[in-house]
Amino acid sequence: MNSSHHAEHANSLTEPHRVGMLSFLVSEVAFFGTLLAVYIAYIGQTTTGPKPDVLSLPLAILGTVFLVASSFTVHFADHALKLAKPFWFRGWWLLTIIFGAMFLVVTAIEWKGLIEEHGLTIATNIFGTTYYTVVGFHAAHLTVGLLAMLIILGLECSGQLTGKNAIGAELVSWYWHFVDGVWIFVFTIVYLIGR
Amino acid sequence: MQSAIVDNSTETRMATKPPWTVYLHDYITTVDHKKIGILYILMALVFLVIGGVEAILIRWQLFWPRADIIPPKLFNQLFTMHGTTMVFFVGMPILIGLGNYFVPLMIGARDMAFPRLNSLGFWATFLGGMIVYFSFLAGDPPDVGWFAYAPLTEKTFSRGIGTDCWATGLLVSGVGTIAGGVNFIATIVGLRAPGMTIGKVPFFVWTILWTSAQIVLAIPPLSAALIMVLLDRHLGAHFFDPQTGGSAYLWQHLFWFFGHPEVYILILPAFGMISEVIPVFSRKVLFGYEFMAAATMGIAFISLGVWAHHMFTVGMSRPMEIGFAASSLLVSIPTGIKMFNWLATMQGGKIRMDSPMLFACGFLGVFVFGGLTGVMLAAVPIDWQVSDSYFVVAHFHTVLIGGTLFATFAGLHYWYPKMTGRMLNERLAKWQFWILLIGFLLTFGPMHISGILGMPRRIYTYPPDRGWDIWNQVATIGALIQAPSFVLFLVNVIGSRWWGKPAGNNPWNAWTLEWATSSPPPAYNFNEVPVVRSRRPLWDLQHPEDPDWKYEGEHA
Fold it and tell me: Smallest Cβ distance to A16: which of B181, B187, B219?
């Protein structure tokens, strides 16, 4: 709807959708930065109940592998879309969704163990409070990412990921990289430093 | 998609009169940045009246020592709602509303980058206000103060629904504010008219850009903190409960990490409007545009590192105190640069004292005063002496009313002709200005003194033997003098809508793009997208023999 001169920056970083997504992701950085700062402030403050040593490092590493792999696959998918190779796009994109879902399964297994074996809930102590908040909000963002990727996949398969929608896959892939990047910080702070 | 009133020009509106439901439907479903801007402004004006009534009630109770007009609980609820209302549902919406209306026009765009997100932003803000005010209907408005210090917000101390309404409402309106910030950034970075490089944007646009950057960086931490309060209250989490391992002190850090950038979110667009009005009514270009632009950026960055000056009395470490005092004092440098540049813009100019300029001059005088007490409060020993006293109340009302409100009135009087096609009544506007100024000085001047004499903020009454009576009485009289000025403004705004003189496209002979189109602008803003070569495109158009770009080029 805007005039032709805007077309000239269709592939540049000043394209409004890209700027909008970047600004939104900056706000998300501020959000997770706050959650993680609070987590760090409370490391070692837990006096009663389960402490961070109940966390399973192998499970967290497994989840990390899924998530890091998904960042690669989503990149390949976006690349394939730009090269107009729909078959490869669908393949890599679907694999990304599967890796993301596997991460959520790992989180679910981890939480089940924490709740049933160790009796750790958000109300148990300050560790439970901060742990479930940080990991929970990350998982919630990941779930939103999965929904967005399913929508993009639906659009692509019905031939609607063209024209002004075409940038959608790229923006969702940015969001996905962001969620992945947040996890690297969560993993480092919660499972390596705080444990 | 558009209804019967696609063409907004005055003639068409006079000729055809669709029923009011058409207008209502049109405004509720609109994605036009101008209509959304007006919705924001109307919302802010309604909440301004509500927050003002709350203020009058507070002042009424404090007129006599040991008065019992308003019970203590209700008094706490009134000052909580007054502060929350003025910051979140008056200050930010009116600035975002003016930004919504004028940023696309000033950069030569046809709308914001994301019109539907824009609509979401307004309705989320509005819904947030409704949720906070629902607490009155539920019989339990929040009474925790606008910064809601922990552990007062824990279930143990606030058992009713008030704190939940407060936290949820601010969370929801925060989503709207972030949506607005993201939209502004995308619009200003991505949709400028051809030739308008980022160094040539009108100054108001530049300040909205940096306010949006602050919104994006400072509101999410508040959202996170509000979520933690709600988790504490409803899922039994322990973030802010010191008895179970939480920390009340942490809340203060989180809240003020948002809270201090927030006051710059409220003042930067005000600086922007002053920087539009003073050049036009001095008939000169803005003095030192580049320095002004850099000072705006400087304030936006420094503001992220000053928050703990709100916490000097909680017992932080000495290095923290010195560091935050130093960073807070630093803010006075870019702010001083702005002040001197505005004065230098006026110097030697052909000054026209129309109502926008009158408010701008009022801003210059009063804001300096509030800024100076800010410098005092940044010094730790002075802060220890007067923190949480009426001196602080006087300080932030002086900068928020003397700064944000006066500048917003300057902007509203400046742009009203563009928004409605009609001029405001100058006589009413001047009465409004002088009544407001006198009432304002009488209200907040004495509070400096009662604060230095030791009167704590937020007490619902005081003993008669402290020497505070007279200052409270003058303050209350001042508030009663201020009140009619707002009535005059509303009468002027409503009356001039129908009976004001027709404005024409450019009644002030101004130079930025919003004055290049009709008043009010058509839905598509511009017939053809303008091409820009300098910071004053309309000057270039009127003076082809002596255009600005000849001179701006010398420095670029």
Answer: B187
